[in-house]
Amino acid sequence: LDKAIQTVYQADTAHFQEAAAAREQARALLQRVPADSPRFAGWAYQVAQLYQNASMNAQARAILQEALARTAPLGESHPSRIAMLSALGESWRQDGNLLSAVGYLERAAAAQGAAPPPPTAQAVISIRSGVFISGAMNGGYSAAPVNAYMRLADLYQQLGRPDAVAAIAVKIRTLAANDEWALARFY
Questions:
Q1: CA torsion, points 59, 61, 66, 68, in degrees to nearest 10?
Q2: Which of 6, 36, 76, 129 shows the smallest number of beta carbons within 10 Å?
Q3: Contacts of 12 (CB under 8 A, 6+ apart)
Q4: Which residues contact 174 (CB under 8 A, 6 or more apart)?
């Protein structure tokens, strides 16, 4: 799967058919990866990005939807499930559908808030496209559930929902009571 993903990135516009074949191969290989694999969420995100980078937004979102469905048996607060909810929320936000984005990010924030604290040795936070994404996508765990609430507050603000922003601010102050840096980023 890593090789198929790498092949797509290495192919240039002159090798469109090679890149398309490798993209399809990566998608097929992803369907065989167990959803409980530590790398599942990361691979699902990377394969979806292959389609996103080729301006195939609907196919990219379909991959994320399939991955989300496959994580259902793992439980709502499993890191891979949270990562897929976050990725779908971000996908909808990028397409300008803020209402759909809010729905996924609300679910991700609630699940992340209910998740057990991660082992600190594995805590990883990735930054993709300027957005904090759950570390579960890289096989680790995000140590900052407050990030999901910050993204949600931003969407509420864009949607003109000041009461929802105020409610999120209370949650963020509670979650980040001992993290002045996180509070400063929010405010």
A1: 170
A2: 129
A3: none
A4: none
Q: pLDDT tens for residues 22-81?
A: 899 999 999 999 999 999 999 999 999 999 999 999 999 999 999 999 999 999 999 999
> Residue type at 103?
G
Within the chain, strands assigned E span 126-128, 131-133
- Integer Cα distance of 36 and 147 in angstroms: 24
Q: Compute the Cα dihedral for 158, 98, 39, 15 and give only its sign.
A: negative
* Each residue's pLDDT tens digit, 23-40: 999 999 999 999 999 999
Q: From CA 177, how far away is CA 170, in angstroms rounded?
A: 10
Residue 68 · residue 35 · CB < 8 Å: no
Question: By 3-state DSSP, what share of the chain in percent is helix, strand and coil, each rounded to 5?
Answer: 70, 5, 25
